[in-house]
Design goal:
Immunoglobulin-like; alpha+beta; 4-stranded antiparallel sheet; 251 residues; 6-stranded antiparallel sheet
Length: 251
């Protein structure tokens, strides 16, 4: 029994190490996202993944139609569509052109200028099917993660280990800080939009209150004028009757 345990122990240790290293070497998965609308499917993503900040890329839209077990790309699918690229509260219209190689595939050139989350806002109709949706794109990353050598420069062979460690730390911290700043910028843009919407709603409410007040004032003035006319009529009628009584008495 002890012999078996002595044999199994190294095997278990090696297996554990393999599992640990496999977790550290797993690369992030990049996937295009698909939404279905009736018999149509709309897929979005980047043509070059990972998408890097400051690098020319293509946001792609693939439109397919399913009939039974057959799926075909839809030609001229974006003729009645409006597509916006969105980052935080900022949007920009993107022109998509059909791919020459694949039916139903459309490319929109874009240079993402900030690290973080982007999405496509899609509105319109495709073959009579109304589509109004927002589909996220894979996160845009900083160049530091794949840059070599470090853009700050590298030292000679002597002391290279320390320099490499410092450069590695710099490369790790840079994208994190850039991501935090980008997320803060996202939050600020969203907050600005919310404040603008609240201010607009408040202005509309104040205008409605003022219109109601003006209407009430007009109604009050009309009512008072009516009451005044009625009182004047009663006074005139009373004077007329009094004069008739006086004339009868005199005759």
């Amino acid at each position: 029994m002890q012999v078996k345990m002595q044999f199994l122990l190294p095997v278990l240790i090696i297996f554990t190490l393999v599992l640990v290293f496999s977790f550290y070497t797993v690369k992030p998965a990049y996937a295009h996202l698909t939404k279905k609308f009736g018999n149509l499917s709309v897929t979005v993503g980047w043509s070059n993944e990972p998408a890097l900040v400051g690098e020319l890329n293509n946001a792609i839209v693939q439109v397919n139609q399913t009939s039974g077990k057959t799926t075909t790309g839809v030609i001229n699918a974006l003729a009645n569509m409006n597509i916006l690229a969105k980052y935080g509260g900022v949007t920009k219209s993107i022109d998509f052109v059909p791919s020459e190689q694949t039916d139903g595939l459309y490319d929109g050139k874009m240079i993402p200028t900030r690290v973080g989350s982007y999405s496509l806002v899609i509105n319109g109709t495709i073959q009579g099917q109304k589509i109004n949706t927002e589909i996220p794109l894979d996160e845009v990353q900083g160049k530091q993660q794949i840059s070599f050598p470090d853009s700050t420069g590298s030292s000679g062979i002597a002391g290279g280990g320390a320099a490499t460690g410092a450069a590695s730390n710099s490369n790790n911290v840079g994208p994190q800080l850039q991501g935090i700043v980008s997320q803060l910028s996202n939050d600020i843009d969203s907050t600005k939009n919310s404040i603008y919407t609240m201010a607009k709603n408040n202005a509309d409410t104040q205008k409605s209150i003022q219109d109601l007040k003006n209407s009430a004032d007009r109604s009050y003035m009309i009512g008072m004028a009516g009451i005044g006319a009625g009182v004047a009529g009663i006074v005139i009628a009373s004077i007329s009757l009094s004069r008739k009584d006086i004339l009868k008495a005199a005759s």
